[in-house]
Amino acid sequence: MEKTRENRIVFWLFLAPVLFAFLMVVVVPFFMGIFYSFTSWSSSARVGGGLSFIGLTNFTESLTDPSFLYSFILTFIYTAINVLAINIVSFALALLVTSAIKGRNIYRVGFFLPNLIGGLILGYVWQFIFNNAIPGLGKAWAFLAPLANPDYLILADRNASVLALVLVGTWQYAGYIMMIYVAALESVPVELHEAARIDGAGGWLRLKNITIPMVAQAFTITMFLTLVNSFKQFDVNVSLTAGGPSTMFLGKPIFGTELLALDIYNTAFLANNLAQGQARAFIFFIVLVVISIVQVRTSKKREVEL
Q: Quick check: helix, strand or coil at residue 10?
């Protein structure tokens, strides 16, 4: 009994620094942010000195602001395309590096490396590629001009810029998701494939009836990770497009590729409206929690069906 008590004390002593850090860095700021979202908080306002309680004003203004509504719609569109692109590419790469191809371990490392590059650096690198390298190819080689028009800047086109964000996000994140699929694929019993091959099942039938059902749990994990990562996209958005080019929405000029995270940042720090930025962040948090729960439950049901 005494030994058990000592072990419990030691356990909590080792855990206390982590719990304290989590409390001070995550829990306390989270609830403080909720409180400030109901106030007139700005960089010049202080508690007891210009800070006043204004109720739901920040929330109503946010939900009627064209830039916030546009960012919400754009983020949903970007997330849908990005989740689909990342998972298709990742699963295809996982099938490739788990096949009998020579040098598959080298391919695994190569596909994973982009995930080690910081999002800000990655955005600036790809900005150079889109703005300089691709048009430069069109100027250098005439036969590439139809594919690399030197007079057309990809990042100056709103729709092309969104697709550029998807391309960069997929290039960066696909290798990481691939490793999850690789772990799942390598856990599929080889005997099942051998039996199906003896019965005359081709590659597509084995993939459809054996591989995909056996890795269904991996799909739940990867869908959740890519969904959350896409909704929270910020660093690549800042460095690649900075929210541009501009466009019109509900009669107001706004940033054409400003995703939700960037909109929250610009509202809080560029417009110096910290309270409204916090209100938008709280709305974002609620929406993300609801979508994540729905996605996980839907994927779990799909696992059972498979």
A: helix
The pTM (predicted TM-score) of the whole model is 0.90
DSSP state letters, 192-237: HHHHHHHTT--HHHHIIIIIHHHTHHHHHHHHHHHHHHHHT--HHH
Q: What is the rounded distance in angstroms from the CA atom of residue 66 to the CA atom of residue 248? A: 9
Provide the sign of the torsion angle of the four alpha carbons 284, 285, 291, 295, taken in this order.
Answer: positive
Each domain of the chain, given as residue ranges in start order, spans 56-305
Considering the domain 56-305, what is its CATH architecture? Orthogonal Bundle (1.10)
Q: What is the four-CA torsion angle of 113, 119, 124, 125, rounded to 10 degrees?
A: 10
For residue 32, what is the enclosing H or E element? helix 28-36
Residue pLDDT tens, the chain, 306 long: 566 777 888 888 899 999 999 999 999 999 999 999 999 887 665 545 567 889 899 999 999 999 999 999 999 999 999 999 999 999 999 999 998 888 888 999 999 999 998 888 999 999 999 988 888 877 777 666 665 676 778 898 999 999 999 999 999 999 999 999 999 999 988 888 788 888 788 888 888 888 888 888 899 899 999 999 999 999 999 999 999 899 999 889 999 999 999 999 999 998 888 999 999 999 999 999 999 999 888 887 876 665
